TrEMBL record:
List of catalytic residues: E213
Family the entry assigns: Belongs to the peptidase M42 family.
InterPro entries given in the database record: Peptidase_M42, Peptidase_M42_aminopept, Peptidase_M42_dom2
Lineage of producing organism: Bacteria, Pseudomonadati, Pseudomonadota, Alphaproteobacteria, Rhodobacterales
Protein name as annotated: M42 family peptidase
Superkingdom of origin organism: Bacteria
Amino acid sequence: MTDSAPLNIDLLKSLCETPGVPGNEGRVRDLILREIDGLFDEVEEDAMGSLLCRRAGTGENPLKVMLLCHMDEIGFMVSHITEQGYIYVQPVGGFDPRNLFSRRVRVCTENGDLLGVMNPGGRPVHIASPEDRKKIPEVSEFVIDLGLGEATADKVEIGDMVVMEEPFIEIGEKVVSKALDNRIACWLGIEALRALGDLRTDADIHVAFTCQEEVGLRGARTAAFAIKPDIGIGIDTTLACDTPGVPEQDRTTQQGKGFGLHVRDSSFIADKGLVDTFANLAEAEEIPFQRTMLRAGGQDGAAAQQAAAGARAVGIVVGTRYIHTVTEMVHKTDLAAARDILTAYLRTM
């Protein structure tokens, strides 16, 4: 394989730092719309808020190849505001409460964003009992303090979205950020099409930037039903548990070993022929890869597989350490490999 093209890190940073939880993906959608100008023949927003993008193929009755890239990140929605101005939230997406202590957050309102801090209710360490110190609070016990007191209720509404407030950084050969799950896929959906240049394939290429994946593949289900693809490619992050404290058989991927060719999770089993096609192509192009399986969890490829009369489906994933935290970490080699295999595959269509 020739040297991989440089990575557009500035785009990934912008995607990750833009707030967008399930049902509130509008800012991410607007950013993507600016970035994809000229890449597709048709772009439409569906009723749920997913972006459905199509580059027309040149063949008669062209095959429909669909890339599914969800826009949403895990976050919260405001559920209650006390008279004193403390905000309670409900999660949209899966959080481990152990990762929520002493976090800075951004509350996104109709009239602008407000910065605050999130902590569980209860005594600080100086006056906590031994039993208090052992307790891991539930997500419902965490509160947000904007420092505004009673005025909070005048500025924040029930349903406003809340995201973690952490910067995107580069360390060594890695990138670290909140929301790499799944702005990685949005980045790949854009950059793979850019890498095609003006090439017209026989097949129709559909890229769906979907909503509400983190709460049940909801946007992907409606998008796939509308497109009725022949081939669905779910693009996502996956676990990279190549870290202390995790048995080798549970690590899923190793960072720096290439993209993940996703064979199975609890939402789907990949089409064997497609797995073989991607594996053979990666070997021919000398693109590093590793086969992956997950015991639990799912991704948008399952929605494409099960839409209408069904489709052949596979997953292309990027191993991510410390997933569903503000320190999600991805190796640049794996990110480049995922982009390169998607581009190489689309060129064959």
